[in-house]
Amino acid sequence: MSTRQSALVTGASRGGLGDALAQELHARGFRVFATARTLSKVQHLKDLGMEVVKMDVADSTSIRNAAAQVASLAGNRLDILINNAGTGLLGYQSTLLDADIETARQLFNVNVFGVLDVTQAFGPLLIASKGIIVNAGSVLGTVPMPFCGVYNASKAALDSLSKQMRIELAPFDIRVIHVWHRRTCDSVRHFLLSALFFAFPFFPCPGKRVG
User: Which residues form a coiled coil (predicted)?
Assistant: First the structure.
């Protein structure tokens, strides 16, 4: 069994934040498990010496299969879990009154329930190593913004989930880190988010206040 510390990164498809995180951890000597729904999108990480695992964070069966695979390979231990996978459904925008409820459910299924599902599945491995959980949030979970209400609400919910995890997992000596990141220049979101931020640099707030 390897003595290297292990890390699993969800949503590690080429060109995204997870890709960069996986490569940085690998460069620092970690044994990296990089996950994606489509293995061809993480083939470049396998070519660099990382281990790739097929996993869809919106599918409980897929998550359990991935957890069993990693447990077998890593000796039932995992030092770091990075819940990076998330979705904005390619920049889906709508007012709350017009938002499609099924689309809203998809956003919450990935950005909130997916994180909880993955954490539950890999929890025993993290307990065994007294590991670290990192949840990738967004500054958009802290402020209202035109046409982004559903996405922002999902990221606000993730922040609350992280705080609850921190309390409940502390007795197991598991640390929980919630990262509020802003724009990341990945292949999908670069144009969409740049356009959104520059189109609404100073958006009006109801009552002339935020919150």
Answer: none
